[in-house]
Design a protein that fits this description.
Type IX secretion system membrane protein PorP/SprF; 14-stranded antiparallel β-barrel; 15 strands; PorP/SprF_Bacteroidetes; globular; about 5% helix; Porin
């Protein structure tokens, strides 16, 4: 019977892959470029962001894993970036590769508005030949499934002092391929983030991210506290009863490292802390000695 359930699961993936949701990163305070191509929250001249996400205890023999690599360059009010997201759920693998461009328009010395667009492809491969079927000559077992399609994101962001507000939409390839069930369904995002200085030692960053996807709505407020702009601890809680705690530090002038733990507390789904996620990120940045334009960043 176990093999039957595996085959049923594979068939469901074929039919409903267009319903796949974007993964929710616990480090969303530090990384919003994947959900909003217009984001200037981190606007270093050169920035490299690496993330690894590993989901444990979800009931799968092979834990879902996600890797992210993101590189962007900022010149004046222009930002150019490239990101690669690799999702792996057992023998089902999806890669999302996009280039993005954003332009910032200065409203005043203390406020700005930016627009951004990301264009790329999504590639999916399901290694059917590595699965075990009840019937050896099942036609589904003869060949691996592979498909590539174009994908588009766009967004806008407003900055007023230490306040950031963003709106965006991802996976708009479905609009150009309405009859394709496998093409990812559009996601709509909104976020707000603020930096509040308590004193010369502590700073608070309240943060809220919301997402609308088909018939579901996800919202996650959070709060991160920085100590001397070198170490931080954060907590967030979603309406899906996901609890996330994070810690990190600036290990060098240009290098940040962070870790986050996420667990679902909904007893109607699984026992609390049975399903959990471990996530780490590394951020490297470089800036010119003399910049002729001020650009707001998390840590100056």
């Amino acid at each position: 019977m176990r093999i039957f359930y595996i085959v049923t699961f594979v068939l469901a993936l074929f039919t409903f892959s267009g319903a796949a949701q974007d993964i929710v990163f616990s480090q969303n305070m530090f990384y919003k470029d994947n959900i909003n191509p217009s984001s200037f929250l981190i606007s270093n001249d050169l920035n490299v962001f690496l993330l690894y996400n590993n989901n444990l205890g979800g009931g799968f023999d092979m834990n879902p894993k996600t890797q992210v690599a993101d590189v962007n360059v900022v010149t004046g009010n222009h930002k150019l970036g490239l990101f690669v997201i690799n999702d792996k759920l057992g023998y089902d693998k999806i890669q999302n590769v996009k280039v993005r461009y954003a332009q910032r328009f200065q409203i005043s010395n203390n406020s700005s508005f930016s627009l951004g667009l990301a264009v790329g492809v999504v590639h999916r491969k399901l290694e059917v030949t590595r699965l075990i079927f009840e019937t050896p000559d099942d036609p589904l077992s003869y060949q691996d499934y592979s498909r590539t399609w174009f994908d588009y994101d766009f967004g806008a962001e407003f900055q007023q002092g230490k306040l950031y507000i963003g709106l965006s939409a991802t996976h708009f390839g479905k609009i150009f391929n309405p009859g394709e069930n496998e093409v990812l369904t559009a996601h709509f995002y909104g976020y707000i983030q603020y930096a509040y200085s308590i004193n010369k030692v502590f700073m608070l960053y309240p943060n809220l991210v919301a997402r609308q996807w088909k018939g579901s709505f996800f919202v996650e407020p959070g709060l991160t506290a920085f100590y001397k702009k070198t170490a931080w601890a954060g907590i967030s809680f979603s309406d899906f009863q996901d609890l996330s705690v994070s810690i990190g530090m600036k290990v060098h002038k240009n290098i940040m490292f962070g870790y986050a733990y996420r667990a679902n507390l909904n007893r109607q789904i699984l026992n609390p802390f049975v399903s959990n996620t471990n996530e780490v990120f590394l951020n490297f940045s470089m800036n010119r000695q003399n910049r002729n334009i001020k650009t707001p960043r998390f840590i100056d």
